[in-house]
Amino acid sequence: MTEETVERKSVTNIQSEMMFIGALYKQPDLYVSYGGYMRSQYDFSDEACKFFYDMFEIMYKTFTQTIEEDKVNMFMSQSDERLRTYKRYKGWKTISSWIQVADCDDFKKYYNLVKKYSLVREYDRNGYPVQRILNHRLFEKWEAKDIYRVIRSQADKINTVISAGEDSVLLNSGVESQVESFLSKPDLGIPLPWGILNKMFRGCRLGKVIFNGFLSNEGKSRNMMLLIAYIVLAMDEKFLLLSNEMDEDDLRNCLVVTVINNKCFKELHGVDIEKPEEEIVLGIYRDNNGNVIERKTNDNGDFIETEEEYRHRVATTSDEFQKVMQVAKWVDQKRQGKLYFKDVGSDYSDSALEFEFRKHRMLYDVKYCGYDTLKGYRIDDWQTVKQTATKIKELMKEIHMFCFSVFQLTDDTVYTDIFQLSSNNIANAKQIKHVADILMLGKRLHPDEYYKYQYISISDWGEPQAHDLKKDKTYFCIKVDKNRGGNKNVIPIFEINLDLNTWDEIGYVIKREKNGA
């Protein structure tokens, strides 16, 4: 039977296009999960459908994520040409009618239909016998990928563009040009605030994930906040933090104390002061004679000074308070880098995390993100921890973001020598090592074991010298258990103060020679 004898069917399905767009206007956040796969120049055969989709895409990304008649009309009126087209297609009346008949629960079906007919049309334009496909008894059940299986020969390029499929690549092709390209653009990310770790990882590279594990209540969130503050305030980059443990106020307090006390920020805001978080949140400040300023009371303990009078007295008699406020003002004024935060404590399923990462990458061009804390979305099921780690890894690669995710080590890690830390110390899911680009495991050294270690300072000139650990200091070590970006042959050591949230990388730790004990 020749092509001419086959009953000719339409290569369009305008109804599915209208339902797809109606569902988008009805539930706009569906775009976050599906928008990245749409190609309007191919996917919509009807000009009205293409127009309303293109306008939705621009509107969602740049104008509003709340779709209402007044807002849509306002958006359309921003351009004379856009408004003329909008009126030609009957404007909100058309959108409203599509919204009414669309069922968001069937959105994936609409999407599959749109993509299937889009692929068929492109094959048709390229001379493939699509009428046989359209007349196939199983066509209604097929998806785009099934059609590709039917037409394999010379179809690779079309399938990749239309159905967002991926094909294998030849690794032994383009090697010379890639090596040469590193001369002008080395494979580096923006720097971390710690020299040794930065050199080991080649910075925060897009598409990569660092998993960082500490014991409970040992400062994993605080350590991450220093990295976040550095990326946002020193590097002027946007950052998204998702947390299922700390709330907005806790994180803002941690941010302020981090910026006040760490040297890398003092060099930027120019304020030299040390101030613990506890005093900031309790409103404790000293006058210029070193005395704590207290609100005035009578003999019965009743306040005889109004809040306004007390605040004025603190502001005019305490240089300490003025310096803290100067730093806080500097943080508020740093508009280039923006720190976005979302509390996901009520829902940290893989789908919820993916939605937030995609949304902020798509709408706000956020390239750096963090997750606190990596845990299974089903309690006591270690496999879900690995699944979440895998999802984050795959997603970062797909949408080209960098992620820093923290997790918890087992309680008995406190008894493990820093040189013996491994993925076996990960609480619930040591298997996340399999998917990690970089895996860090950290612990605070106990003063009773200081005698076992020394460190080589990063500030030494000439021949490296071994330094003893001091009893009045608190030390924290981070072992790199896996590193796809480079070596892992040293263990950085930090002097830390969690009250100030300072993490000073002073060198790398070594075991003390026995004859030196």
What structural class do helix, strand and pairing data support? alpha/beta
The first-to-last residue Cα distance is: 92 Å
How many β-strand runs?
Answer: 11
Q: Which bin fits the share of residues in helices?
A: 40-55%
On the 0-100 scale, what is the average pLDDT? 88
Overall spatial form:
globular
Radius of gyration: 29 Å
The largest pleated sheet is described as:
11 strands, mixed
Low-confidence stretches: none
Strand content: 5-15%
| Discrete helix count | 21
How are strands sequenced across the largest beta sheet?
A: 3-2-4-5-1-6-9-10-11-7-8
Explained architecture:
The protein is α/β, with parallel strands linked by helices. The chain has helices at residues 14-26, 30-34, 40-43, 47-62, 69-76, 80-88, 91-101, 107-125, 130-134, 144-150, 156-163, 175-181, 195-201, 220-234, 248-261, 263-269, 277-281, 307-317, 319-333, 350-364, 382-399; strands at residues 209-214, 239-243, 339-343, 368-372, 402-408, 438-444, 453-457, 466-468, 475-483, 491-497, 502-511. The protein has an eleven-stranded mixed beta sheet with strand order 3-2-4-5-1-6-9-10-11-7-8, with helices on both faces. The mean pLDDT is 88.
Provide a brief overview of the structure.
With 517 residues, this protein is of the alpha/beta class. Helix content is 42%, strand content 13%. The chain has an 11-stranded mixed sheet, with helices on both faces.
